[in-house]
């Protein structure tokens, strides 16, 4: 079983990747709109 620390790190990494994807997606939309 994964410890609480490992689970927390996995969640943080998942949120960071999601934020990166969202920022690149919104930047692409902004460039496409202009």
Explain what this protein looks like in three dimensions.
The protein has 34 residues and is mainly alpha-helical. 88% of the residues lie in helices and 0% in strands. It has one helix and no strands. The longest helix has 30 residues, at 4-33. 0% of the residues are buried. InterPro entries: Prli42-like.
- Low-pLDDT parts are none
Average pLDDT rating? 93
DSSP helix fraction: over 70%
* Cα shape: rod-shaped
How far do the termini sit from each other? 49 Å
By oligomeric state, this entry counts as single chain
Which structural class is indicated by helix and strand composition?
mainly alpha
Estimated share of beta-strand residues:
under 5%
SSE string:
H
- The value of Rg in angstroms is 15 Å
| Total DSSP helices | 1
Number of strands: 0
Q: Summarize the biggest pleated sheet.
A: none
Characterize this entry briefly:
It is built from one helix and no strands.
